What we know:
Layout: H1 5-17, H2 22-32, H3 35-52, H4 57-64, H5 68-79, H6 84-98
Helix pairs in contact: 3-5
Amino acid sequence: MIADVDNNIKELADTLAGVQDGKLIEAFLRSLLTPAEVADIATRWALVKELNKKTPQRVIAKKLGISLCKITRGSRELKAPDSAFRKMLDILYSSQDKS
């Protein structure tokens, strides 16, 4: 039987949203995901940050070793109205300003 993806993702997101301990979330993600999945997620987050810095796509592809298709998808998501990428970047940068 296929897991109920939408409900499980919502439950996971809601649970993570309630956690104030970044080290716990990191440990949880490293326990939940394989090392390759952790590396893939880290690369995708690096991609979003590079796109936000207006780094050219070909430079990102070379720097991160990812396809232009992934970069284009990330760019499209970042530019989307009500972008979750943009909101997460705003959270990241506002928390860094407080440090």
